Amino acid sequence: MKDSFYDFVSYELEQTLPVNWQHIAEDKLPGAQPCEISHAFHAHIAGESKMVNILVLPLSIKLNADNEKQLLMLRDKLLSERVLLIVINEELQADYLADTGTFISERLLVHSPDFMWISCCLDKNNKMTFDGIHYEYLHRGLAKVWEGKLIYASPRKGLQQVNLEIMKGNCWKCGKEIKTITGLVFPDKQLTSWKNTTWKYYNGLLNLSQIMMDDTILIADFIEILRIKDPVVTPVSFRFNDADQESYFAASCPYCGETCDEFYVNDERTGLLHSMQSRIDGSLKYYSLKLNIDQYLIDRLYNGCEACVHTTDGGWITRTKVSFYQLDKKL
Hints:
The chain is α+β, with helices and mostly antiparallel strands. The protein has two domains: 149 residues, Trna Endonuclease, Chain: A, domain 1 (3-Layer(aba) Sandwich), CATH 3.40.1350; 156 residues, no CATH class. Helix content is 26%, strand content 30%. The protein is built from eight helices and 16 strands. It has a six-stranded mixed beta sheet, with helices on both faces. It has a four-stranded antiparallel beta sheet with strand order 11-9-8-14, with helices on both faces. Helix 1 crosses helix 4.
């Protein structure tokens, strides 16, 4: 016998799905209990045809290593097919993630227009939330999806313009004034000049150490061009960490050659994020370059969060808030 949360989701779906949408037969649904898709159908979202798969995860489900692996494999399979995977889980409290919610947050979640996470909270009368802030009845929230009233406003994988950030400061070792390459940010719009306060970047800075091989070559070449005119810009290269026995991409002082360690860089940079003045006075400067960003980097971008005036959250939002990433792409 299925958990009543499955029945609740089914009922809410019935309130909102158009009757002429083609449903996939139950015996054709992917996955295996308790990690199976409960509903799948061809949808028409904002004029586009899309296969939707719904994965329901109630509080009663007992996660172990085997079914966690099944869920991850199911997610990867569906995302490779470019379907919209909607994960709907049940929580006791709006401000607390139980084991299933923690698993979704830490391992299952993918920051992609093909993945949507909805939580229904018992202490909110089973109302749902996309963002942990706004709550509404599940059938109303789902109706926004079918009606095209929600849009995915965040960076997506693929070839795109990103911003290389440079911070004015001093070398922590020799004390000389340098311009440190800190990493990449993903702007919410494209401009010809970044020395203004009209734009924000998504979530936070992607540190140099998080960037992979192919992109590091393009970044290093771009920085060498900058250094021809401005030699105090830090060069970048792979450095070896004796403690971790690993190589990582990093900036180094153009004078003494010491690595611009992330601890020192982030500590100095934090003081520049309290206002937009750092953009105006040149303490933080940005250059656009085109890189092929993969899903790994997108997910790394959302590992942490810079809650400041420079950033915006992104994710699934109403169509009234449209960003650069949606100007030429539809759900």
